[in-house]
């Protein structure tokens, strides 16, 4: 164990283990998580080479092997609880993704929810036994979020009682679905349904794409891998071109909408049910943000405690880089953010489960708010985490660029969350739509409830450009409740500003739609402020649940840092709105410096509490024992370019070069 | 040609070709650049597979081949002007790096500048004929920017007249030098010189590391590749462990310092000369920032003009995504930044050459200012570009994640500039040191000249927290000269704030050094504001040189957008300092929206003017003809995972899985 890191742990003022329980949601959950971890880490079947040393094809190969292995292991151990499966898979996959993920996350769930009884009888046994391996093919090369724009057609032919599936253009080729390129032999294809000369919009069809025995693509199917990406090298995201492929009528998923044998179209009763899955996945992504950021902070903070560099006082030994104020300023606000997002992730999961219960009882009343919240928070947390990972990486100096640090992997595997499951800007605008609608309702005299109830005060004409100094100053920058209030007011003011911008555009004879587009910058800003308020509020609320005094104290410091750091980085908003005055903003900056010093002795303990196992982190910089350099050397020596002492290029190009000159 | 992009070009209000001349520095330079481009692009010897389809070893192999090829071609064509060589190499290397770069950039120049006459006679012919291929080994695993911390030792043994080189610890292993791992047979090693029992600090030694014939590592040399990185996969960054390696006394570079045969150490006369190279490379990096950002903007803006998505007005066809205000708000400020940095890059190059002349004449007076400026601007431009590339990538939706977009490559090849040649935070603090020193001189009554002369006004006690509204308002947000002034004042105020923070810390009984560290956040902020001011000023100055009315008009719009966007993103600074009042900040936001609309018709033409050849961009999204989708499909089909229809993993893992269940 590195002596620096031992000393850091001795300096901690709280019980790390107890904080881990809080993060896991209780002692029992921590215990179970560790049981599952040790199952995976002691299992010789999951021993593997660092994927960074492998070619793309080898990486995919290794990932398929692990996917197949996991299926067997989970059955062997009888692990069936979704959360435990998720935990098990996370351990196996480390910083990478699962080759067969879409089969479990999209193919099976879609069959479960959209097959009629007869279809269930046929398809579920096939899919559950992996005879049918599947994916979900929605996005096309030319079309992403806008479902109405999808071009793939499914035209019903009553003569043969078949659908003819077709990719009429290059831009209509299905593009991106995970597992589509090489792994799947079936795809649920989303296509515009045509029957009896009419288009009935998007519907789902089960399309066999490869022979179930030979795995060779079927006639009319052009399928393959979309090529190397920024990350996700384990996953064969694929393309699918359909050239008049015929499937039986029964392959349309018919639990809701139907096409009768004669071609008569029967409408679905309601569209609200698919809504829930989206909300669920976006809520999960909030938790993913917390995980990625807490991993990155763990690596950067542990490394900063063992790395010595330059000098603060001349003549003294090189200090730990964590002693530099600039390093603390980079990392501690992110550490606070990782805690904030962890608690927000917990909240989203709990809320989802609570509301799911209501939905099953037919009560959809809370769904719109959760939908808006999950969209905005998905964008807010992934954007923050995305840039935060890079700050962590760059705070590690040169070694952050080495794949041995794991930070490049964490980044490239995480960054797609900003785009998939709802592109972030689109998400922010969806939340804004809900906020503006709520604002208008409040203005019209309706009493709002829930998290947007702060808009009830909108009647008071808050936004008047007025001298900042003229405002009364009631904010206590050391009091979290007071800071929650000020974030709330900022959100209210920015929602109002956006709503007024739309109104003004419409007064300038713009259509409702153009007015919306011309106010989009303000709308995104309003959503961002709303989400920021929610995060500060939920972090503060969480403190109320924590009984342990020492932990309460350190988490309060983190929460305060989170709130105050958000104020400095957005100080213009608070000053413009007259919520803070200039001396207060200066006080905030000064207070932040104090909080950095205050957190310094607890920094390593605070990342330890996330309890990311070394094998999960897979980072030489983030090792628990702090023994960075010897392991970096060992890792480098295993690198494939060192397989031979003399690379063949010397004989091929360098030696001949001399004689040519 | 895609009809959308044709239309975009028809809408341009200025002559693209003429703007290209301005960016290149004149018609003649554009002509010559295009000649060199066509030499490279028509040369069948440089045809190659997309490196993204290759393994690490294949990528390195291809890069060595190209490096060797380039040496022969440059001789064949008689290209000898450093700028033309740079241009030629840029074309060949595309978005990637040169395997043998360090031989040219560090090994040869160090020999030229630090060999004594006898050493020159021996080493220059060897190095120029590539018998000796070399690199520059300074950084160690445990030591980066702080040169005094380096641990490698060179101990003189008068008995044999040799130096004994040694890596006494794991952390002292040389780590990161480009070309060290596999390519070089010599390294210039920086080591602490010991002779006659005394340490004389860092000196440079020529160390043979591989046999010049067989390329096998020499006894006592442990050398290899440091393993895969975030980018730079073409380059064999290496490690070097020296186990009591003996080299003759004559292998110490002795132009300045010397060790006599008996071990007597002779001091060098002055240390100022190495200073210049650092300044030169940092100035070059400013230009690299402009190039990387202009490439990224080219890709994102062209793609946004052919990509159709969602709807603004219901029922109408999907609009070009460049019509969304949020998309414009992401991309146009970055486009303005790319122009700003291009002009700053030109300025830095010219200034360097001017001052170099002075230095050769023995006049060092302007060097400290240029040193401070190049450090700060290196950090300022690389940080901005680093995050800007990612904004461009994410603005391309899903396809931005595909390696076919080239954006991931541009990012990973660029991001190390934030760390190498001076870690950015360290750079900002170096600039801050110069600013604080200048501030103190001004306060002491000295009259400053040059770019920091604005600090002369420091005597007037500017920073008094006072009500914002009470300040007189003289800023015209539509007038660039007025905005330059307001940026200048912001810089002056933040420099003063940082200086006062140090003073206050010292009053609290902190040592000078601790006071500095406790003010580091303010110091970085001050440097940032200084650099921001310089960029706004240089962009504005450049406009004065432009005679063409149409070009002047569009560049003025860009400059205004650059300046105003900087104000909104830092509005807190301007409000706190009372430089702008609240209504003005609202006006700035409104004005930015107008500028976005104003730039919209010229956006594609403005990126066309950068004149990045398709073969250099190597991006399916950024193609000049806008024919994105067909080429993306073609690219994907060439991907190695599509070499076979059925991947071996099916037979190995997936088929057997079924029978095991």
TrEMBL record, chains A, B:
GO terms for molecular function: acyl-CoA oxidase activity; FAD binding; fatty acid binding. FAD binds at residues 139, 178. The keyword NADP does not apply. The gene is acox1. This is Acyl-coenzyme A oxidase. It catalyses: octadecanoyl-CoA + O2 = (2E)-octadecenoyl-CoA + H2O2; (5Z,8Z,11Z,14Z,17Z)-eicosapentaenoyl-CoA + O2 = (2E,5Z,8Z,11Z,14Z,17Z)-eicosahexaenoyl-CoA + H2O2; (6Z,9Z,12Z,15Z,18Z,21Z)-tetracosahexaenoyl-CoA + O2 = (2E,6Z,9Z,12Z,15Z,18Z,21Z)-tetracosaheptaenoyl-CoA + H2O2; tetradecanoyl-CoA + O2 = (2E)-tetradecenoyl-CoA + H2O2. Gene3D superfamilies: Acyl-CoA dehydrogenase/oxidase, N-terminal domain, Butyryl-CoA Dehydrogenase, subunit A, domain 2, Butyryl-CoA Dehydrogenase, subunit A, domain 3. Residues 15-132 form the Acyl-coenzyme A oxidase N-terminal domain. Pfam families: ACOX, ACOX_C_alpha1, Acyl-CoA_ox_N. It comes from Sander lucioperca. Keywords: FAD, Fatty acid metabolism, Flavoprotein, Lipid metabolism, Oxidoreductase, Peroxisome, Phosphoprotein. Coiled coil: none annotated.
């Amino acid at each position: 164990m590195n002596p620096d890191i031992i000393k850091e742990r001795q300096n901690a003022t709280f019980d790390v283990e107890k904080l881990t329980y809080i993060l896991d949601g209780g002692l029992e959950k921590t215990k179970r998580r560790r049981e599952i971890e040790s199952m995976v880490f002691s299992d010789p079947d999951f021993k593997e080479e660092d994927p960074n040393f492998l070619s793309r094809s080898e990486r995919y190969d290794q990932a398929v092997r692990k996917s197949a292995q996991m299926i067997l292991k989970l059955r062997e151990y009888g692990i069936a609880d979704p959360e435990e499966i998720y935990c098990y898979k996370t351990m196996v996959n480390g910083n990478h993704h699962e080759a067969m993920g879409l089969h479990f996350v999209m193919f099976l769930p879609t069959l479960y929810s959209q097959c009629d009884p007869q279809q269930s009888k046929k398809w579920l046994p096939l899919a559950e036994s992996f005879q049918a391996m599947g994916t979900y093919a929605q996005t096309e090369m030319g079309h992403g979020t806008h479902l109405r724009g999808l071009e793939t057609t499914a035209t019903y032919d009553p003569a043969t009682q078949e659908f003819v599936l077709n990719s009429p253009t290059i831009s209509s080729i299905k593009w991106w679905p995970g597992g589509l390129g090489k792994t799947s032999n079936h795809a649920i294809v989303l296509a515009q349904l045509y029957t009896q000369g009419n288009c009935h919009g998007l519907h789902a069809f089960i399309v066999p794409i490869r022979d179930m025995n030979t795995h060779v693509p079927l006639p009319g199917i052009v399928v393959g891998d979309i090529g190397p990406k920024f990350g996700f090298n384990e996953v064969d995201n694929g393309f699918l071109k359909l050239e008049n492929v015929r499937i039986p009528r029964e392959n349309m998923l018919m639990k809701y909408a139907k096409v009768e044998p004669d071609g008569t179209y029967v409408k679905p009763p309601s569209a609200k049910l698919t809504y829930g899955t989206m909300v669920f996945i976006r809520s999960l992504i909030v938790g993913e943000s917390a995980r990625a950021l807490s991993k990155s902070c763990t690596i950067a903070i542990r490394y900063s405690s063992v790395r010595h560099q330059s000098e603060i006082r001349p003549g003294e030994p090189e200090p730990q880089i964590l002693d530099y104020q600039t390093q603390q300023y980079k990392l501690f606000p992110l550490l606070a953010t990782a805690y904030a997002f962890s608690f927000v992730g917990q909240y989203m999961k709990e809320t989802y489960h609570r509301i799911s219960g209501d939905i099953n009882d037919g009560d959809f009343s809370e769904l719109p708010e959760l939908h808006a919240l999950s969209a905005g928070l998905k964008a807010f947390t992934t954007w923050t985490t995305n840039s935060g990972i890079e700050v962590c990486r760059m705070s590690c100096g040169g070694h952050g660029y080495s794949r041995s640090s794991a930070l490049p992997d964490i980044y490239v595997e995480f960054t797609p969350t900003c785009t998939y499951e709802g592109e972030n800007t689109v998400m922010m605008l969806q939340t804004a739509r809900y906020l503006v609608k709520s604002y208008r309702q409040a203005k019209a005299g309706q009493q709002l409830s829930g998290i947007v109830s702060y808009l009830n005060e909108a009647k008071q004409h808050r936004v008047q450009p007025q001298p900042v100094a003229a405002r009364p100053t009631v904010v206590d920058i050391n009091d979290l409740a007071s800071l929650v209030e000020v974030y709330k007011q900022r959100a209210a003011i920015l929602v109002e500003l956006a709503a007024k911008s739309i109104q003004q555009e419409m007064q300038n004879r713009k259509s409702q739609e153009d007015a919306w587009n011309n106010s989009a910058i303000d709308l995104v800003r309003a959503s961002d402020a709303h989400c920021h308020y929610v995060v500060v509020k939920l972090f503060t609320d969480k403190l109320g649940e924590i009984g342990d005094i020492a932990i309460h104290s350190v988490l309060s410091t983190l929460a305060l840092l989170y709130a105050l750091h958000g104020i400095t980085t957005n100080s213009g908003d608070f000053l413009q709105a007259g919520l803070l005055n200039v001396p207060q903003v200066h006080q905030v900056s000064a207070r932040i410096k104090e909080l950095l010093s205050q957190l310094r002795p607890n920094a390593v303990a605070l990342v330890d509490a996330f309890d990311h196992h070394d094998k999960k982190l897979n980072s030489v910089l983030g090792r628990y024992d702090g023994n960075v350099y010897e392991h970096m050397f060992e890792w480098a020596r295993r690198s494939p370019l060192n397989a031979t002492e003399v690379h063949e290029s010397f004989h091929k190009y360098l030696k001949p070069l001399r004689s040519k000159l």
